[in-house]
Amino acid sequence: MNRNVKEFIESGVLEAYVIGSASADEEREVLRMKNYHPQVKDALTELETDMEELASRIAIPPPPNMWNRIEAEFNELSTIPHAPLEIGDRQQRSRPEPENKENQYINVESESTHMRIHKNWKWVFAAVFILGKIFLGFAIYFYLENRQAQQNIQELKQQVKELRGK
Amino acid sequence: MDLKLDQPNTTTNTYHATYTLYQRYGSLLLGYITEVLNDKTLAEQCLIETFKQVQGKIGEYTQAEGSWIRLQRLAKNVIGAYHKSLNNGHNHLNGQTTASNRYTGLMTPEQQLVFCGMHYQQKDIAMLAAELDQTQHQVKQLLREALIIIRNEQKR
């Protein structure tokens, strides 16, 4: 191994890079050396694997609704272009109104068969469902009434025929 | 470890790429952030903020190499900003982590100070050099030694 490369690897700058404490100049140098020297690239990959392994020892599975919360933030970002990404003032921040109606919807080429709609639609669906049940009830009631009336008419016709026969 | 993803070029691809990153690294990031902040609710908030920022620069995190390092660095920035805003600029990040005690217990006090200072408390090399009254080169060597200890312990 080239002596300079060995010294570079052993200088501790790669460790500072993976832990995020290297200066901008050091970062540039690490990336340059990585491109020119496979030994540097291997050492860096090994360190990155170590750091990932270290993190995997303390991993905590996110709660089940976590992705939905992140997704909600995506939608917020998509519908509000250039929204300020301030940290720590979530509770105080009110959502600014979109500038025009066209910006209220995300333009996506969806591969998914699912769709997302506004929560208010649940009340509309509930009302349609209840009205549907009421109409179904009426339809059954009037159908039975009609059938009963038809039977009565048939009986009356029969009686009329019998009376005429006499 | 590599994470091979197509370079996202549409909103849908960005969404899927971010979700893939979340599935691969979400638990690692949440574990790390929780270790640093020692507060589950805050950690979840930071995780959301981290992925919110990932979405804006998804191309940086879906390169062939170093996804985890980049994500962890972003999480550190988010934690730093979050913590500063909550503590008026004072840094009180958790330096005595529980899960990493297995490794730090094998380190010298100086190695511990350097590793925990950089990894969990966002301290830079110059700050630690001043704190330890050593050169920046010596601080990097201490960090290198600390990471070698962790590597050897992980291989056991």
Outline of chain A, from the CA principal axes?
rod-shaped
Number of helices of chain A: 6
**Helix proportion of chain B:** over 70%
Contiguous runs where pLDDT drops below 50 for at least 5 residues of chain A: 81-104, 106-110
Could you describe the largest sheet of chain A, including whether it forms a barrel?
A: none
- For the largest interface in this structure, which chains are involved and how many residues does each contribute? A-B, 50 and 58 residues
Task: Give a verbal description of the structure.
The complex is a heterodimer of chains A (166) and B (156). Chain A is an all-alpha fold. Helices cover 64% and strands 0% of the residues of chain A. Among the domains of chain A are: 3-57, no CATH class; 118-166. Chain A is rod-shaped, with a radius of gyration of 37 Å. The N and C termini of chain A lie far apart (126 Å). The relative contact order of chain A is 0.05. The model of chain A is unreliable at 81-104 and 106-110 (pLDDT under 50). Chain B folds into two domains: 11-86, Rna Polymerase Sigma Factor, Chain: A; 101-155, Orthogonal Bundle (Arc Repressor Mutant, subunit A). The mean pLDDT of chain B is 82. In chain B, helix 1 (11-37) runs antiparallel to helix 2, helix 6 packs across helix 8 (136-155) and helix 7 packs across helix 8 (136-155). Chain B is mainly alpha-helical and 156 residues long. Chain B starts with 10 loop residues before the first helix and ends with a helix. Chains A and B meet through helix 2, helix 4 and helix 5 of A and helix 1, helix 2, helix 4 and helix 8 of B.
